[in-house]
Amino acid sequence: MSDIKCPNLEEIKNIGEYQACVEQLHHTTWYVASTILMQSILTAIITEALYNLLIRSSLQRLIIRQWMLGRNITPVKDKMTAFQRSVGMGNGSNIYSLPYQQLCGQITNALRNQLDSGEGALLDIFARDVHPENLERLKSKNAQDLSNEEQNNLAVIEEQVFNSADRGLDDLQITLAKWWLKVDYIFSILISFIILDRLLTVPTTFSVADSIAEFILAFSISMISGFLAPTIRNFLLNILGKR
Questions:
Q1: Residue 115 pLDDT
Q2: Which of 18, 62, 99, 235 is 20 to 30 A distant from 243 in Cα terms?
Q3: Which residue has the higher pLDDT, 8 or 213?
Q4: Which residues are CB-neighbours of 227 under 8 A, at least 6 positions away?
Q5: What confidence score (pLDDT) does residue 212 get?
Q6: CB neighbours of residue 61 within 10 Å
Q7: Which residues of 141-151 are buried (b: 16+ CB within 10 A; e: fewer)?
Q8: Cα distance between residue 56 and residue 106, in whole Å
Q9: SS3 letters for 170-221?
Q10: Model confidence over 139-186: pLDDT tens digits?
Q11: 30: burial class by Cβ within 10 Å (0-12, 13-18, 19+)?
């Protein structure tokens, strides 16, 4: 940053001073803007790396567990194991580490397969408002020799189970989306503050700030970069075809 101090407009005595001040303002604005962009991109890359390493898997496992508790799906440990086996073939780490949109897509496919076959633990988890007797009738449909009337009744039950499971899945997806909206921005802003303070050479950092103006500048850069980072991260993931 230049040490030139621009005077007030009424103190400018010639066109040279005015041009120097305009040039300094231009360089300062460009420097701050480029810092925000660079910091946003770096924050986006670091947050995605941390999500993939541990955070996404652990957090989504916790969210789904709390979601089951909130819907009184017990025993939770057994239901989590059944969920994991039904959706991820027993590999919970890979399933929970997926972005929540892909995770819900996997659940949708597994639910459809179980609804068609009438078997599987996901029906017990997501179709909670269907009477247990109707669920049992659906699960044993392949072992029954049904009359036309019974087949019609079973079709009604299938429709009820499908609608109930669809509502349950929507509820889970909304829960995950709300959590990730909060986590994404809070975590990105936190990482942005750390980057500004520790890694980047910028007009000011918290460690050398010697005025309120410098602190406000550093705070503003970190906040803006943190808010931009999730959008940039999603944009980069879409380009790479991972969303």
A1: 82
A2: 62
A3: 213
A4: 185, 188, 189
A5: 79
A6: 17
A7: beeeeeeeeee
A8: 16
A9: HHHHHHHHHHHHHHHHHHHHHHHHHHHHHCCCCCCCCCCCCCHHHHHHHHHH
A10: 776 656 667 777 778 788 888 888 888 999 999 999 999 999 999 999
A11: exposed
* Packing angle of the helix pair 56-70, 148-198 (nearest 10 deg): 140
Report the alpha-carbon distance of residue 9 to residue 171 in Å, rounded.
Answer: 59
3-state secondary structure of 125: helix
Helices assigned H by DSSP within the chain:
15-50, 56-70, 76-88, 92-96, 100-117, 122-126, 132-139, 148-198, 212-240
Nearest to 130 by CA among 117, 143, 115: 115
Amino acid at 21: C
CA pair distance 97, 109, nearest whole angstrom: 18
Specify the pTM.
Answer: 0.76
- Give the integer Cα–Cα distance in Å for 176 and 59: 10
CA-based radius of gyration for the chain: 28
CB 187 within 8 A of CB 181: no
First to last CA, the chain: 40
Q: Where are the domains of the chain?
A: 32-240
d(CA 16, CA 21): 9
Place of tokens 């909304």: 174
Quick: pLDDT tens for 72-113: 888 888 888 888 888 875 555 578 888 999 999 999 998 888
